[in-house]
Design a protein that fits this description.
single chain; alpha/beta; 7-stranded mixed beta sheet; about 45% helix; globular; S-adenosyl-L-methionine-dependent methyltransferase; EC 2.1.1.-; SAM-dependent_MTases_sf; SAM_mthyl_Trfase_ML2640-like
């Protein structure tokens, strides 16, 4: 399994597992589970639970308790937290910013397009990822009997190819000079600063003024055990974290590329906004935002 597949599968598994827990949820994703066969879902569950000694050497409990610990502390916080942030921002961009199309970069197994609310039916939703990734996703959608609505478009593109924007612009669902919402979740970790700058410059060219971009990004490396384990896992999956940024550095990078950093959330703020209700309802299973991860909402100037 290549790193792209591993990353998207674990992210979707984490959302599916979290959605199966008692309410309230940090983020609701009733579609993610349908992307897996029962055998595959059980296999991933067993593999994750079997790694409890790596995550928590002092853990004592059943396999199911081990899986819950790993999901709550390692797997779920990143994908559910950033998805909640992005979709909250999308709703605001449509209601107040007049967004008419949604670009989901590095779409992987994102499921917004397959559980979209009524108001989203007026949007064009373009999922952009490597052709092989999108092919696998479409196969999983078919096996899971998940309908692909008419406003959803698949755009096979390689972000390392400078001409990927040409491919996007040729998609019949893409409309130039239209207020746009763009999400780049889970992508910045694996881009060098130069590559991230090129990505933002490409978005500056593509998006009209007033468009919104949301993404999560790594802060400078910390020395906590959690952060070191996360970076070690990423490296083992062949997707080592490439760079880290302070808020000031990110604000300057965005400004250089024609974007205003409109909203910035550090881990403490992420936990307060998105995880507090879950923590209150499940005090025996505390979940918090990942360390050394920040969320950003930027507006094209």
């Amino acid at each position: 399994m290549n790193s792209n597949n591993m990353t998207m599968l674990i992210s979707a598994f984490a959302r599916a597992y979290h959605n199966a827990l008692p309410e309230p949820h940090v983020f609701c994703d009733p579609v993610a589970r349908k992307l897996f066969s029962d055998e595959e879902y059980c296999q991933i569950s067993e593999t994750m639970a079997g790694g409890i000694a790596f995550f928590c050497p002092t853990f004592s409990g059943t396999r199911e308790e081990a899986l819950r610990w790993i999901a709550d502390h390692q797997l779920s916080p990143s994908p559910v937290g950033r998805a909640a942030f992005a979709e909250q921002a999308l709703a605001c961009a449509v209601r107040f910013g007049g967004a008419k199309q949604v670009l989901i970069l590095a779409a992987g197994l994102d499921t917004f397009a397959y559980r979209q609310p009524e108001w989203a039916s007026r949007l064009a939703v373009l999922e952009i990822d490597l052709p092989a990734v999108l092919k696998e996703k479409q196969e999983r959608l078919a096996r899971g009997e998940i309908a692909v609505l008419e406003n959803v478009y698949f755009v096979g593109a390689d972000f390392t190819d400078a001409k990927w924007t040409d491919t996007l612009q040729k998609c019949p669902g893409f409309t130039p000079n239209t207020p746009t919402f763009c999400s780049m979740l889970g992508l910045s970790y694996y881009l060098s600063e130069a590559d991230l700058r090129r990505m933002l410059q490409a978005m500056q060219t593509l998006l009209p003024k007033g468009s919104t971009v949301v993404f999560d990004y790594p802060a400078p490396e910390s020395k906590t055990g959690f952060d070191q384990r996360q970076r070690g896992l990423a490296a083992a999956a062949g997707a080592a974290i490439a760079a880290g940024y302070s808020e000031t550095q990110m604000e300057q990078l965005l400004a250089d590329c024609g974007f205003l950093l409109y909203e910035h959330l550090a881990p403490e703020s992420i936990t307060a906004r998105f995880f507090a209700a879950y923590q209150s309802a499940h005090p025996e299973h505390p979940v918090a935002a990942p360390e050394s991860v920040c969320y950003a909402l930027a507006v094209r100037q």
